[in-house]
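Continuing from the previous page...

OK, I double-checked the sequence for Secreted protein against my notes and this is the correct one:
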Amino acid sequence: MNNRRDFLKHAGALALGGMLVSNGTVNAFYRKPKYATGLQLFTLFTIIDKDVRGNLAKVASIGYKEVESAFSMKGGYYGMKPKEFAALTREMGLGWKSHHVLGAPVKGLPAGMRTLKDNYQELVDEAAEGGIPYLVCAMSPTGTTAEVKETIDILNKTAEATHKAGIQFAYHNHYHEFELVDGKTPYDIMLAETDPQKMKFELDLCWVTKSGVDPVELFKKHPGRFPLWHVKDLDATKTKPEPVGTGIVDFKRIFAAANTAGMKHFFVEHDMPADPIASISTSFENLQKIIG
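Thanks. Re-ran it with the corrected sequence; updated structure tokens here:
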């Protein structure tokens, strides 16, 4: 009887394995990770424009599956039109999921850089042309009550346009959005004065940690509003970003709350590392140990 039961169990397993192999889902059934690891290409800002194709090939070879694009000194999308860049990322086996744009002009950034304040419809139209599901405001001034009001107006205006285009709009934080302005934090005002469906948030885990705000508590207070994350670490002095797994950010605890956050995609980022490829390699390796 035992031999018969063992035989039937093995036969059933082999049959299931055969079905999985035949329909191409064996890897998905056994080995597919819960989340695809993405990269914010601003991490490669100092090198990507020199060889866009070559650098994207390196990103893919490390194991990254998705990318979020950002400003390029070559203009456009690393010197390309949206459809051209979309085709290149597909060729590299990378899913282009999101693009960063500026809200209102910020001091110190390159002259002539397009912003949502002045070019929101153009930027939304390009995102739609590229076929990306998310458009993200990378930053916008929030140092005064007037700046907060202007930023909120820009966000709501853009959110309406992205909604009509079938794109999800989001806002990416630094730490200054969590500093009080006339008794309130700009981030709380953004959450309260934008439409929860049309306006989501890309939480930068490094900067929110630097601000002293607990991201898990933020998720609990506003469930489902954080479909995108920037995954980067913070050094022990809380002064500069570091590769993932080399600083103080509690990624295990934060990833355990991913469902509450509504997280769909995350992007590794490291602002201006000395060696971008070494940094993203370290982050990728450590992330596999942290989240599997």
